[in-house]
Every structure is written in structure tokens, then in C-alpha cells.
Amino acid sequence: MSVPNFTLNNGVQVPALGFGVYQTPPDQTIAAVGAALETGYRHIDTAAAYGNEREVGEAIRRSGLSREDVFIETKVWITDYGYDTTLHAFDKAAGKLGVDSIDLLILHQALPGEFDRTIEAYKALEKLYYDGKVRAIGVSNFMPPHLDRLIAETGVVPAVNQIEVHPYFRQTELLKVDDQLGILNQAWSPIGGITFYRNGSHGSTLQDPVIAEIAGVHGKSPAQVMLRWHMQQGRQAIPKSVRPSRIAENFHVFDFVLTADQLAAVDALDTGVRGGPEPEDITRDKYGIEISEA
User: Fold this and answer.
1) Full-prediction pTM beyond 0.85?
2) Which of 2, 58, 80, 153 could form a disulfide with 89 if both were Cys (CB 3.0 to 4.6 A apart)?
3) Which residue out of 50, 81, 129, 168 is catalytically annotated?
């Protein structure tokens, strides 16, 4: 089964469905990524802060696929922001991945209290882009004010903004801003993997009755419905799992179509409550971790 592509604002194509390795322990990463590639995923999303770039690279090599057949995305962590340190962050990431170039390199967070450092980091990404070391550059968890200042002070509009999006937290206004700027929305936690406090109790999108009813109509799982919801609305989804059965289930989402009413019903589940950290609260003092050289 071939995966349809989205075309980024510089013409580079990225699969509509990716595979993520956030919180996947290094000793499980090779097997998980290997299962994903065998299933048919061709976009692997990792990050310096995940601590498993080396294992992602090893899994790709073991797969027997050519380098050109796998779209690799990784992220620079905030402790490596700054022009020279971000250039070196590329060297660290490429070395761990075992590649000469990276398909998509993005900034993992904005640093609102040190935005000059964020700008310098992005300018380093621009140099890497112009030098041909990365095919596209972007950001993650950037809110509209961050995007406004970034675009005003740099020359390359981000190709993607990887953000928390799922039925319980849609970020409608941010989605619109990204669309208007020509930035592809990438959804992390696309099926609401974070535990949420909803209607007076903890709940999960996987147990939501509205999503379950739609899933029953199509003979699909709730996770498959949510992934389809993202892609039909023009977002790339990046689910994660270490279980081969779930990895395969998440991939089989291209053989059914949600109706307009079903899309609207999922939209209506939005609570406006974020599960991840507030982008404005990100600081090096609070979230700083050293990214190793090896």
C-alpha cells in the first residue's frame, strides 16, 4: 500500500502519515521502527531530546531500504539553540542517524523568554538548508506570535509546524494561521495519547462514544478514525507505538472516507484543554537537558 504525500511549501513531498518514536526507549526503537518500515511507513520522526536517533538510523539501515526511500525528520533541542551550537546540533544528529543529510530539521520549541536565541537557531537551519544539508526546515509548538516574529526576522517560511492536535484539543486558530502561511500542520499525539480530564473525569479519545460510533460505521478502530480525520483535513499525522499490531492498525487508514458530518462530529469534541506543556512556559532553566555528542 502506497502512502499519499503532502507537498511542502518548497516543493518537497512528505508522506501523509508518519511514524513517531517519542518516549520509545532506545532498546525498543530498532524493533519498532523496523516494524513500521516493514508495514509501509516511509517517514520516521525523531528528535535529539528523545535519545533514540542512533537507533532510528540503525533500524533504517537494517531495513534494506535505500536512504532516498525513507523521509527522516528530527528536532533541535532548546539547549542547542544559537547559531553555532545549532549548526553543531545538525552534526550531532546526522552522526547519530548515520546520514549525510536530513530531510526535515525543525526547532523543537520556541524559547519565548530568549527569542533572539530562537532566531539564531533558525538562521542556522536556513544555512543548512541553503547548503543542501537539509531538504526542508520548520518548527514545533510555535504559536502565532512566535511565527510572526520568526518570519519577520528570517528568510525561509517554516515548511511545517509540529503541534499538539487531536479531537480533544484542536488548536483551531493556530491551524488556520499555519494554513494561511503555507505551513503544513504536523499532529503530534494525533490520537490523544495524553490522559485528559474531560466532563469531570479522566478520559481518553479511544473510549469516546462519538468516535466509537463513527468507527463502527466504517468497521474501523477509533484510532484509525482519528488518523483519517487528520489527513482529510490536510494535516500530517504522526502516531507512535511499539506494538507491531498497533503499528499496522494505524497504517491502514487509506481505504475509507469520513463524511462531512462525521468530520464535524469529531471537531465538536474539542475541549480547548492542552495536554502538553504551555509553549509560553518553555525555558532552558526548566526544560534544559544536555544533548550528548555520541
Assistant:
1) yes
2) 80
3) 50
